[in-house]
Amino acid sequence: MKRALAAVVGLLPALALAQVPEPEGYRMDHYRAPVPETLAGAAVVGPEEAHALWETGETAFIDVLPRAPKPANLPEGTIWRDTPRDSIAGAIWLPNVGYGAIAEVTARYFRDGLAAATGDDLAHPVLFFCLDDCWMSWNAAKRALEYGYETVYWLPEGTDGWSFFDFPLERVTPHSGHP
To answer: How far is 88 from 92, CA to CA, in rounded Å?
Structure first.
């Protein structure tokens, strides 16, 4: 028994370092899971590189953390409070645009939000993030590349990695027009 346990424990470092391959399309489920180290067409950055981009003010930071909708069948008089979101200071929050499949109204909201953040300039750099090990930002960055954005950054560590370095966070609300 001890030998079997030692063998399993010995495999843990190798399992932790296992590469997650990029899917051919979008990630369609299990969005909070290990992510790839790459995104074809995008530059993958860590928190310190993202902070350097943030300091220049030349890159639009796009937070894609999903937001639960208010349930339609709440009993009358029930108080609904959205979960607050602390994000990278100056970021625009476009919730729910990082799912693998999105409705046309959400795709339009995403395009409109990107246009607002970039001055409708496909050459304007954009950086996508969510939380650590969150496929939402990977999907959103991939979708922005398909929309024609030329300089796309992806911060896989998201606000978790950002806050680890004590970089500035601020309370945000979803960008107007949220579906």
So the answer is: 9
